[in-house]
Amino acid sequence: MDNIKNLLEYVSTIQKNNDDLVEMDFKPEKLPFSTLNLMYQKILGKERIHSEILGSFLDPNENHGLGVIPLRLFLNEAFEIELENLDISTIKITLERFVTTLENAKRPIDILIEWNDSKDNKKKAIIIENKLNFAVDQINQITDYYNGLISEEYEEVRVMYMPVSKIYKKFKHTDIADNIKEKTIDFDATMLIEWLEKIINHFKIENAESHNFKVDLSGIIQYKIFLEYLKNHNNNKIKAMKIMEILTNEEVIKLENLVNLILSVEWSEARFSGISSKIRSEISEINVSCKKHQDGRNYAQYFFEFNDEYWIELWIEKNQIKLYIVSNNQKEVVSIGNSIFTYDSSFKKYYYYLDKKKFIFNYSDAVNIELIKITTELLKELKKYSKL
Question: Rounded distance, CA 86 to CA 121, Å?
């Protein structure tokens, strides 16, 4: 056990002393379910898919029904450009837009936004270099894109480097010419998600105020969830790689063995052993079943053989324990003794009821005493629902 404790302390120490890891929480991030991800895994041209989706949302002429709002929020968020300064009729969004390099070769820009300034009629453009699929930086690619557009007499060209995470990749780490770096920004998946949230919030207000036409936000919402999946997946991968770098192979094996134990039902039984033994000392006929949720949370079921209508479940969530009344039937409220539980959620065709004001406890020995007392009292009330 000392070896395991020393290993965890070792990881913690290195995290504190490594600048790249200071802001990093080594807890795995939850991966949201995404239908887009299921399809994305089957597609070979992944980078192009991101460009297609982003390009369609940015294009005011697409049939998404969102008009110029996505483009307006995007330009303002990224470059503080006001749409009022653009000649909207000249806005053009192009994917795989080829430019000619100084060596007379052809290179495709992932996404190009171009327009004429409404004040001086100058041609302006934004290059978007899409790295959301971890594409490798190619030699001089952004410099070639920039110079190619300047040779086409664009007066002002800006560049957006779009990685999944700023931690993982930054435009400053590329071979972009210094004068072009001054016109380049990072715009990662987190910033994309924030942009999509602003679009959603804008139209939620508009939909609430409209009595007739409602804007369909399903496409935006699905892409936002997918980007959250991609971002969290990438963050988990970075954390794993950092740990691999600082541990020996023997230490990695010890850590994996520890993780396997933590993910076992036996670990859940150990987490609840103190609570369960004290409840059993008060109610000998109670049955206890400790389980592990697929997301890693530990929970325990407390039930009587003769009562399959209601039972109690305790769920450990971070530093809290939540006490639920669970039933096979869905109702608005469930009354047990003097306590009233309101419907909270469903899981595996069972319905969960919770009193958030009274039955969420901080996970500590002092509070566990109160938790055990309340759980025992509620279980005694449930005995009255006996079918015998």
Answer: 9
pLDDT tier at 347 (50, 70, 90 boundaries)? Answer: confident
* 59 vs 240, residue with greater confidence: 59
Query: What is the chain's alpha carbon radius of gyration, rounded to the nearest angstrom?
Result: 28
Q: 340 lies in which domain range? A: 265-385
How many Cβ atoms from other residues are within 10 Å of residue 229's Cβ? 19
- The tokens describing 109, both together, are 């820009």
Q: What is the mean pLDDT of the chain?
A: 84
The pLDDT assigned to 22 comes to 44
Helix (H) or strand (E) holding 208: helix 189-209
Distance spanning both ends of the chain, measured CA to CA: 48
Lowest mean pLDDT among 26-40, 115-129, 130-144, 260-274: 26-40
Last residue of a domain, one of 163, 180, 207: 207
How many whole angstroms separate alpha carbon 361 and alpha carbon 132? Answer: 41
Sheet with 156-163, side-by-side order of all strands = 92-100, 106-116, 123-131, 156-163, 184-186
Per the CB < 8 A criterion, the answer to whether 202 and 65 are in contact is no
Number of domains within the chain? 2
- In the Cβ-directed half-sphere of 205, how many Cα atoms lie within 13 Å? 5
Among 207, 238, 256, residue at a domain's last position: 207
Gap between the Cα atoms of 363 and 298, Å rounded: 13
Q: Which residue is associated with the tokens 């895994």?
A: 41
Alpha-carbon distance of 72 to 155, in angstroms, equals: 21
Statement to judge: residues 163 and 301 lie in one domain: no
Which amino acid is located at 240 in the chain? A
Q: CA-to-CA distance for 204 and 306, rounded, in angstroms?
A: 49
How many Å apart are CA 189 and CA 232, to the nearest integer?
10
For residue 102, name the pLDDT band (cuts at 50, 70, 90): confident
- Asked, for residue 243, whether it belongs to a domain, the answer is no
